[in-house]
Amino acid sequence: MLTRKQHELLMFIHERLKESGIPPSFDEMKEALDLASKSGIHRLITALEERGFIRRLPNRARALEVLRLPDSIAPGLNAARKFSPSVIQGSLGQGSGLGRQIKPASSRMPSAGNDDDVVSAVSIPVMGRIAAGVPIDAIQHQTHSISVPPDMIMGGEHYALEVKGDSMIEAGIFDGDTVIIRNANTASPGEIIVALVDDEEATLKRFRRKGASIALEAANPAYETRIFGPDRVKVQGKLVGLIRRY
């Protein structure tokens, strides 16, 4: 059961995506729901995500996918969407470009009927560049796909990012490498993650906790560990593999 505001926001996002393919900005959502601040929008989006109505996309900052609508509005539609979801990407900020429609980056394993001697590679999308240094606008849209061994991505949704910077060199991650990321929104201390800071910038760092705060730790003594309040950092995925070309 949704609250009135949750229902209003879900339908506003749905209608805007239907009309233009681009999600509304936080300011537009705030004005449409007559809220005093954008923090209220953040809370509503989190509630809708927890209830399975929307999903924040792991491959682009500030983008939303509507997973389903209330059964009272679209009976039967939600079951069909479960098997063939469509993802509409677009910036929630002002001045965003046109959205794109792609399928989610899910791992596709070879079927059991394949010849045991022939292991099919799995294709996953490369979603742009990620900073291993000072955070940059990184995760934007699919640029191309790469093939990886199936044993590198055992279960879950995966995507790849090209590394820019040298802050993780002591973890064996160098400028120009391609990292394989498993979609996740939580992490354990010590894991290397894709972190989204302030819903704006993405970076590849080791996840630590400092009391109630979150620390994004570099693997290069030339870079300082950055400390953020827990509400400023979202985990977008965990490092599970790396590809390097010589």
UniProtKB/TrEMBL annotation:
The record marks 132-133 as: Cleavage. GO terms for biological process: DNA repair; DNA replication; negative regulation of DNA-templated transcription; proteolysis; SOS response. It comes from the Bacteria. It catalyses: Hydrolysis of Ala-|-Gly bond in repressor LexA. Residues 125-240 form the Peptidase S24/S26A/S26B/S26C domain. Gene3D superfamilies: Umud Fragment, subunit A (2.10.109.10), Winged helix-like DNA-binding domain superfamily/Winged helix DNA-binding domain (1.10.10.10). Residues 2-63 form the LexA repressor DNA-binding domain. Pfam families: LexA_DNA_bind, Peptidase_S24. One of its GO terms (molecular function) is DNA binding. Its EC number is 3.4.21.88. Residues 26-46 bind DNA. Represses a number of genes involved in the response to DNA damage (SOS response), including recA and lexA. In the presence of single-stranded DNA, RecA interacts with LexA causing an autocatalytic cleavage which disrupts the DNA-binding part of LexA, leading to derepression of the SOS regulon and eventually DNA repair. Belongs to the peptidase S24 family. This is LexA repressor. It comes from Mesorhizobium qingshengii.
